[in-house]
Amino acid sequence: MPDSDRYLSRKDLQERHRLSRETLNKLWAERATNGHPTPVVGEDGVMRWDEQEWATWHQRHLEQRAQARRRAASPPAKDAGLGDDELGGPAAFARLLGHAGTSTISRWLKDPPSGFPQPASWKALPSGRQRPQWTYAAMREFADSHRPYRGHAGGRRPIDK
């Protein structure tokens, strides 16, 4: 094997890239779909990888996984193709923010967080109630600037003060 210092065994990869043996085994097992580099097998039968090729591949693999996580965390809204001047109600606003229901939007109408837009109009419902309507431009602007609240994990007791 020429220039054996360039080639790393699994143990070397574990140490240099701080990966567990299980992670390396999983990456190797998924090589058909993740593009894992091909090893060079030495005379001793141990698989080794070109250090630079493996490091480049691993960095690209991590970036692709991060992109996939970001896409999964914020799927495109059903209303993404609508124009900025079109109106949407609380359900559309909640969808755009990634909420499952409209209760947060209803609460924010009564006690708005910083930057929450006022409704552009109110739509009269057959029941006589009024439903707020916002322009998609206002909803998107708020969604882009709003940092979602992060609660604590469930099952904890409140802290007594």
Automatic annotation (TrEMBL):
Name this polypeptide is given: Uncharacterized protein
Residue span of region Disordered = 60-88, 108-129
